[in-house]
Amino acid sequence: MTEDVDSAMDETDLAILQALVKNARITLSKMSEDIGVPDATISHRLKRLEREVVKGYTVIFDPDKVGLEMTAIIIIQTETEKHGAVKYALSDLDEVSEVYSVSGEYDLLIKLWAHDMEELNQLIDNKIRSIDGVDDLTEMIVMERVKEGTAPLLV
User: Fold this and answer.
1) Which of 28, 39, 107, 142 has its CA 20 to 30 A from that of 20?
2) With 60 as the cut, is the pLDDT of residue 7 above it?
């Protein structure tokens, strides 16, 4: 489909996306009932949205319940010519959940997870600082996760 998704999206598409954001396991029949359109319409629209808009489905778990008690945000300066290699090396680390190229004094912002402070320090010292092209970094330990999640569906 080559049409522009933004111009093709209507209230039904947005309602489907909102239903999925609230509960990605919602059944087609429940979504149909809640939105007030036939199952076949939901099914057709959902298939199109999955091709063009929905990047995937995932599980959101409580990090504390699986022992990930430490969260850190780190801003990183890179050597200019090695910026690309650094961001991809960081992306390959299992402990890193987010990597952003940013403007300003620093070049990258990452979010990472660890079971405890010792593991966090080892991760920073042995994995992140050792990446060729990491010039400087500033670590911020998350004291409280007030709001955390995916991008909001703002309509």
Assistant:
1) 142
2) no
